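Known limitations

Files may contain more than one protein. Parsers should not assume a single record per file. Below, a two-record file is shown to illustrate correct handling: read the sequence, read the token line, then continue until end of file.
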Amino acid sequence: MAEENSFRNFLAEAWELKKQNEFPKGADILVVDRLERFFVSRLNCLLLDKNIIESEMYLCADYIARTLAGYAREFPSTFRAAEYLYAYLQCRQSEKSGEPIRREDYLVRAGQACFVISVFFPCLHHSRRVDERYYAEMGATFFYQYFLESGKEVAQHMAERFDELVPLTQEAIEF
């Protein structure tokens, strides 16, 4: 019963966001803080339009919105994003603790980076001389390993539905 109510809440929120549809097509997004809401709105609208009603897809849509908004805040002004993402994933020292990055943090960042690359740079494999499926397979693997180590449900769904979520996200941001 609780799961059914949770699912109803997902659908109610998605429908409310669909009605709002805050950003007209082609409008520039000037306020980074609104990016997350924009991505959630677009992804949920697409899920509703495609009659996809599985709760894990809405959970993933929320996660993707936070991930994309987070990366948008961190992109360097040169927008050499692919290089930036690789550098970001290096086993570097944490600014606060001075300790190496935790394995769980590395796994989730690596999964997110592969997802972002798959969405925004689908042809990057050409310049890297890797197979077309490389980033999708690596991303799904990182998310699954993160799920095994952390138990986070959204990581399991991101791993299992990676191939469905990439084109959905591309469509949501009108690529």
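...continuing to the second record:
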Amino acid sequence: MIVEGPYVKHSIFSWVVLLIGCIAISFQSNAAELPPSINNVETKRVGDHLIRLIRYNMELEPIIEIEVLTTPSVRVVNKMTIRGIDADGEHLDFGDSDGTFVEAAQIVRDGVDFAVEYFYSRGGSSIFECHVPVNGGQIGMPKCVSQ
């Protein structure tokens, strides 16, 4: 028995519209999981692990995140959130400055290098170059020097 007629065509069209709507909602809900304050995400293999560097818009959320992931089952095994640095004998909290801007950041063979320009509340600014070592899945403390 073959069913034909205008109701069948209308019914198929309704199902197609419903399916497209569900797919669109699914894509929207997945997109909402990524915070709008994230500017850039970089992932590279270093040894047996992947390193993921997450750069935020420092005006919205003044942090830098480094994650170590395992392979082949990709899961986070170690994570560091950098909210400030120690340099020149003092602790510089990104949130307490008049502005902190990431000038450069990259994953290198033994960790992560980044440079920040830190604007002091008392006036003036300094640029700091930092290295965060990553070895065997362990994340070391940032070592920073002023330029």
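Parsers that stop after the first record will miss the second one. For reference, the second record is described as follows. Residues 38-146 form one domain.
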